[in-house]
Amino acid sequence: MSTDHNDDQLGPLIRKGWTVSVQSNPNFRTAVWARIEAGRRLPATWSDWLKLNFTRVTMYAAASIALTTAGGGYLAANQANRDRDQLIQRYVTSIDPHQRVAASDSR
Amino acid sequence: MSYRWITAGVVTVVALAAGCLAYVCFHRPLPASAAQAHDSLAWVREEFKLSPEKMARVEAMHESYELVCADHCIAIADSRKELQRLRERNAPETEIAAAMTKAASVDAQCIASTQEHIREIAAIIGGEDGRRYLSIVLPRVASFDHSAPATLDMQKSSTHDSPRRK
Prior knowledge:
The structure holds two protein chains of two kinds. By secondary structure, chain A is mainly alpha-helical. Helices cover 75% and strands 0% of the residues of chain A. Chain A has helices spanning 10-17, 28-40, 46-52, 54-95, 97-106. The relative contact order of chain A is 0.03. By secondary structure, chain B is an all-alpha fold.
């Protein structure tokens, strides 16, 4: 196949049949400037970062503390109930001959 | 390290400290006397905070009842051993039935005596606390299947859910 690099018809043909439609993005500039601004505003210190994210950090901290406090309280109450139950059982065994016999049989 | 991770670490440490603090605040450790296995009155002492006079009466009654309870224990064990002996040597049914009746009678006597003691203690405690004492202690004694015929195997005749008998 021979190719004629000086085909005079090729240029007009391409210009006629090959059209590129460019969609303009009206927010492009705004978005670029917003990113540049965000980069400028990166906090230099931890306290600056905390100030910037105060609401999020506060909510996270409050939720975590509430959760662990409830967990600690639950564990303590559970332990206290078990201790109490053990003491009651010890008392009942000391006055109930059937339970004493059962306890001595199981030893 | 990013500020986000530093914050997460600090919040986690603070939250864990808060959890530990809550545990310490809500936890009521057993007093040293209650931790001793021989102090069977520890629960009454801790739960009802009785006056020294009332507590002294309860202690005196408990001490004297422990002797009665020990006698009952011997009677129960004897009646069951007798029943076992009769069964092992294939004694006549009439003898076994008589032994079972005797064992049931011993059981009933022990139950009545225990319940009477419990009601006496409740009367000493008195008032709402006395009723609370009864509501806690009586079901634990009564949960034993006393109405069932006495058998040699305590585990089968018992409806108690004590772990040591399982």
